[in-house]
Amino acid sequence: MGALTTSPLMKRLLAVWIGAILVFLYLPMAAIALASFSRQRYFRFPVPRFDTRWYEDAFTSLSVRDLLWTSLTVAAIVTVISVVLAFLGALAFARYDWKGRTIYQKLLLLPIFFPQAVLGLALLLWYSALGIPTSWMTAVFAHLVWILPIATLVISIQVYGFNPAWEEAAYDLGATRWQVFREVTLPVLWPGIFSGALFSFLLSWGNFPLSLYTTGADSTIPEWLYAKMVSGYTPLVPTLGTLTTVGAALLLLGAYATIMLVRRARRAEDGG
Amino acid sequence: MNSATPATTESAAPILRLQNVDKLFGDFVAVERVNLDIREGEFFTIVGPSGSGKTTLIRMLVGMDKPSDGNILLRGTRINDVPANKRPTCMVFQSLALFPHKTVGQNIEFPLKIRGVPPAERRGRCERLLQQLHLPQDYYGKAVGKCSGGEQQRVALARALAFDPEILFFDEPLSAIDYRLRKALEKELKDIHRETGKTFVYITHSLEEAMVMSDRIAIMRGGRVVQVGTPDEIYNRPRNRFVSEFMGEVNVLEVARDGDRLRDGASGALLQGPAMPEGFTKGFLVIRPEAFRFLNGTADATPNRLEGRLYNEYSLGSRMQYQVHVGGGVFLVEKLREQRYQGQLDDSVTIGWDPAEAMLFEE
Amino acid sequence: MSLETDVRALESELEDADHTRRRQRSSLWTELGDWLRQPGALLAAPPMLLLALGFLGPLLLVAAFSLIPPKTFDLGGAWTIRNYVDIVTESYWISFAWSFALATVTVILLMLICYPLAYAMTKVFGRAANILTLLLVIPLFVSENIRLFGWVLSLVKGGVLPGAAELWLGLDISGLLYTVPAIVLGLVYVYLPFMLFPMVLGLSMVPDRLREAAVDLGASRWQLFREIELPLAMPGILIGCLLTFILALGSLAESKILGGSAIVMIADDIESAFTFAQNWPKGAALSVLLIVLAGGLVFAVLSRLDLDKILGRG
Which of A89, A161, B188, B278 makes the best surface tag, with the fewest CB within 10 Å? Predict the structure, then answer.
């Protein structure tokens, strides 16, 4: 064991490296938050005067409400569909041995290894050739093409740890197929399904390249922000950017807290 | 209990009868023409090396797989097509298959919960099982992952007993346990068998394990049952070389007939074997290490005498084992510790055995 | 002894069994039926159907569009390779070259940046790794254009970095934005998690006892890295490189938001062909070229990897 301990100097260097990367990752988000509280229409550093007027604007704006609603609807529907399909897909990916599985595993991953902007344009072409008018609904489908493989991967990691003998044992002890599913399969795989749902929601919520070409007249928040960035800056850009970031972070923390609470509840059950 | 209704039991009728049971996976024949009768209340063990088809066989007996051909009869009723959850039998899995998200108590109560037994009654049954299996009562709320290997074995057994099966199957549950604990659990299992009076069907790759626990043993190889018998019968009258070798370390000599004697291929020695079957030309002579003795002078009149060199000595606790080199052949000799060989490595030694103690197989 | 006769009886019995054994004949249809009856195939069907409709279909359509005359929208007409000829004769190779160059630089930088981090997460800071993972994941869920815009605010004249430099150091670094290095910064920034997490997965596949054994056998720190850690973590590192290379190759937002009009990357060309120029066949042909180049790489790498082994440990 002793042979592998890292020297204190090395440890300190690694800690500095981690710190630098975290600063690198969070600096732009901090800049956005800073800009959103700046009173000026155009951002300058250091900020001469702080103000929250852009938030008031954002909360009262009807178009912002529309954007929020579209983004939420798309993300919610994507989450539900992708979790159901990814659950099935993950069982095929990691649990069952079947002819064609290795090919399936690789085919399924292809959309992840694919430039999203090109995928978005290809889908745009596809919809127009099939005569399907683009709207938030076509964006849901586009998101699924990219998010389903990711959700499947996330759930698969949990499924790899699943011992099929658990199901067989329950079945052998007299449980019906539905009881096996409810009593064993679902509770054991629950953490994976939960993470899969979280990933699906957040990735859809933040997606921009696919939404850009597939929402038609509807618009999600990231899309609208992009439009404003490239033409006609408004201070609502950093404001909405901050709001979506905080929203995503809150959701993640909430999820983390839920997991911790469930674990503690289980442990308390153990104690009693 | 459910669909497989017990028929009127004649005392001689087996609880479980297999008739010409086959299992094919595609072109691969995993189990072939197996006929077995398992009697009410006995501890029956199926032994075989990996790939011998024993796991496939037990999966069919439990109801996880269907035979391709043949019949499985439970008290005279054909149960081939009865699924596992409708059979009055259950199994302790190789991996134990304890539900990781449930506590010890919830695991044990699982079959009762499935049957709709009210919680209070479940709890009472569970507590009695914990006691019967020497598990502390406060383990009721413990996470199964926090139990030791031996405790998990007991929880798995308690869960199966809670089901109150007519036959309890075991799929090598002790294979991953370390040697000393395994020895203790083997005896415990036999005690439980005695206390409950249930029919136990156990599979394992270890004949040694089977010998400790079983009333009767079936030995499988290549999907077929090679021999069925009590531990005594298997030990004293193995049916072929495979069974005799399966029992543990034995000396196997490749021999050819030479007049009324046998010529050992490796050492070239001329030996006296047991009675040769008619038309015997060549085969294998199997001699247990403990059949040998070190000969001193010519006082011993055995016709089998081999001159060799003592190459090495191993201590097996109460017994000592020796490796003796004779010409090109290597022999294992075993003696009780108090009868150990007095001398040094590289001594010239003479070993011998009685012709009747060796076993001769054509193959 | 009766044993020998027993043996012979048993063996002849078994031979009989061999003779009576009949193999089942199977036709193509029953085979297909059997294949579909596998639970895995059944469960894989819905996701595969979705990808057939949402991925394979569109790609085939793009391929078809790339073969019709420029600036037409009708698949019924004559087929031509004009678009490809145009691409080769016009100066599109420049954007391809920029995309490949920037993707390569991004991958190299990310490897250097992420390896120490992945190493620290898997082998050094065991307990803090969870919270660190969370901190590193959060940015992934914020829309990439918002984060890139944060860089605009950080780099722009009078922004966070130039403002701070001027305020505290008296330096003028206002020319950072809308340059090629700014694009590389954006690419490295956005795709960092895509290199990091596969690398972490790869490094966690290196068992500590192997590393201990190597050190015990006299390996130096460098030899440990070269002989043990790198080869065993290679599947994860390869996936990370592949992922970041492909994503950087097809990136659009980074060059547009941070690069201004410094250079044109290939996704930019594709987008303009589809949108402003309304020349779908050319956009399709450019896409096909990009897909073929990237896809070849993906297939070459993925076919060498055993996904069960990589993910099963996760």
Answer: B278
